[in-house]
Amino acid sequence: MAERLAGYGVEEAIAKGQVLFRRGDRRADFFLVLDGQVGITRTGEEGDDEILTIHRAGQFSGELDQINARALLVGARALTDGRVVRVANRDVPRMMAAEPDIGEIVMRAFILRRMGFLHHGEAGIVLIGRPDDPETLRIERFAVRNGYPLRLVDVESDEAASGCMGRHGLDVADLPAVVLPDRSLLLNPDTMALADRLGMTERFDPQAVFDVAVVGAGPAGLSAATYAASEGLATVILEGLAPGGQAGASSKIENYLGFPTGISGQALAGRAQVQAQKFGARLAVSRAVVGVECDRRPYRLKLEDGQTLLARVVVIASGARYRKLDVEGYDRFDGQAIHYAATAMESDLCRGQAVVVVGGGNSAGQAAMFLSRTVGHVHMLVRGEGLAATMSDYLVQRIEGSARITLHPFSEVSRLEGERTLRRIGWTDHRSGQETVVDAGALFVMIGAEPNTDWLRGCIDLDERGFVLTGESGQVPGARSAYETERPGVYAVGDVRSGSIKRVAAGVGEGSVVVSAIHRDLEALRAV
Questions:
Q1: What domain range is 356 assigned to?
Q2: Cα(240)–Cα(303) distance, integer angstroms
Q3: Cβ of 291: how many Cβ atoms within 10 Å?
Q4: Residue at a domain's end among 37, 61, 88
Q5: Is Protease there in the keyword field (predicted)?
Q6: pTM of the model
């Protein structure tokens, strides 16, 4: 394998102390160690390099940022004289595609190394704040959902908090604060600024033209990007927050084909993201699309930071978001004790407390089952008489059989109480008019979806609820594909499409199938 891999690079001698790449670099080369030792380093508390691990003969550098343009989490320098094979960054995808057995080992190592960083909170950021503070939660969610290593210092319970705050000259009024990998400090940064400082975003040449721009990195968008990139199309994915979409908020998907023990939405999205980038798709996070010039091709997409980019084909996969409740005090607790996802992060926040889950679909059922393992009790509210009409039977049976979940039919939230944080939740039974109030520290809201299509108004026809009309809906007479809109070369897939089936598998299928129509469209465009 080493001999075959060497054919994609050049053999070089390295000298003790030589820097191979630095933390924060982008698109670093890949190094296979033939002789000697290479140290992988991070920035220590005092700003000096600390050795995380040592690569010896037969081992290689790199983790997931090797296959994208993000800033590297770690650096590398020679600890002894030695020899390496250097594979230029641009040649790594070719090497992995042409040598699949080597590519499998390399990719698995990259994934496991990132998992190690995430598990131990190494080489990433330190977040100092209160875990129930909405701004702390916002920053934590952004890092977690983007697979960026994070260590949370809870100022109320962590013994190291006072020392950490003193070292950085912080007061409680400054929180939340983020200590970056280079040990510089940001005070309550907005998401876009944080992503920029962490090197998680890309800058685009406004004159460069992509074959395909995918708006939204949910299952449908990631599927479309993976198939398009794997078939040689220059592809970019634009995502306002993090990969996964609404599915990324699901604690466990058990009826997705090929995963008999289930998989979390975040894990599924993470794998799909890596897969798309492995084939060369570029990903821009924390950059929502706010508009599109659709009067001529290539289409020009406008991003919220003022950037623009051009694409011959646009795939609308911007998905949908959960609706909010019309209850007094809702906005005060939103983002703090009101959640739209039930992942390990939310589960830890609610440990031992009673919680309320609102909704009767599969997402609500999965959330209730997942939370029931760690919280005190789950109260599940539905407006109808039960779950059978809206939820998969396997979830219905589990919920009915759980002593830790109580279903309340014909009920809606009517009361939210608490001072600094949510303490009590009340709901009213529409049959009797009776209100029940319980001590509960969190509300999980999963009650249907509103499409993310504001950026399309004035360009694409939408149905009465705001979902995108396509050929399959029968309301776009000239569409050449079930997924094409009335604009040639503009397609919609997944939850955002009018009439779509709101399931992960359906979104993935639509994302894969649309690429065949994209090829036909691009061929016709080139022939003009």
A1: 330-445
A2: 9
A3: 17
A4: 88
A5: no
A6: 0.88
